[in-house]
Predict the structure.
Amino acid sequence: MKQKNQLQQKYLELQMLSAQLREQQKQMQVLDNQLMDLASSKKALDDFGTVEKGKEILMPIGPGIFAKAKLEDNKDVVMNVGAGTVVKKSLDETKKLLEKQFINVQKVQTELLESIQKLSTDIEKLQKEVSSPIK
C-alpha cells in the first residue's frame, strides 16, 4: 500500500513537471518571436536610414494596409515608450535600445533554457522511477 502511494505521488509529480515543461517551452517560443521582431525592427531601421528625404514610401496603416507618403526625416523616429506616450529618438538611440532589448531577451532565454534542461532531466529520472516497479 505504501509503495502504491509513493508511486501515485511520483506520477502526480511527473504530471506537474510535464505541465511546467510545456509552459516553459511556450515561453521559449514567445521569446524566439520577440528576438525575430527585434532583429526585423533593427533591419528596418538600417534600411530607413538609407532612404532619401522626400522619397515616396509606403507607410503601414494596419496589417497589410499601406498608404503612400513622402519621407520628411530619415534621422529620427517616434517611439512608443508605453502608456500611450511617444518620444522622438534618433536612429542611433533607437538601434541601441533595440540592441539592449535583444541582449536582455537572450539572457532570459538562456535562463529559461537551463530551467527546461533541468526539468527534462527531472522528468526522465521520475519516468524511470515510475516505470521500474512495473517491471
Notes: Strands lie at 56-62, 65-70, 76-82, 85-90. The chain has one domain: 2-131.
